[in-house]
Design brief:
Blueprint: H1 2-16, E1 20-32, E2 35-42, E3 47-53, H2 57-73, E4 76-83, E5 97-105
Length: 107
């Protein structure tokens, strides 16, 4: 019984963290107030999700470069993040998530 409880306690953090993700093209982006906000749309423009991050540090600078390059070339990207209650005001896309990783899917 102890092993079952220990296993559940160890695996609970992996299942409790919700993530948001989407593969698609960068539809729009805004850089204001120290926050980069962008939207990815899949299936044309029928499924869109907003993401945001603060461009602080080398990792964030690399994500900004990837996102801008994908917008310019039209390549698809896969973005993954975590849902955050305090999303930037005025962002029109629902299901915003603070992005944690971006992967380019070249055509």
């Amino acid at each position: 019984m102890f092993k079952v409880i220990a296993f559940l306690m160890l695996t609970f953090p992996f299942f409790s963290n919700a993530t948001v993700s989407l593969t698609g093209k960068v539809k729009s982006y805004t850089i204001e107030g120290g926050i980069v906000k962008f939207a990815i749309c899949a299936n044309g423009d029928t499924v869109c999700r907003g993401f945001w991050f603060k461009p602080e540090g080398d990792y964030a600078a690399a994500m900004l470069s990837i996102m801008l390059t994908a917008k310019a070339t039209g390549d698809q990207i896969y973005a993954q993040g975590r849902p955050v209650a305090d999303n930037p005001a005025g962002w029109q896309y629902g299901s915003n998530g603070q992005v944690t990783s971006i992967i380019v899917k070249s055509n």
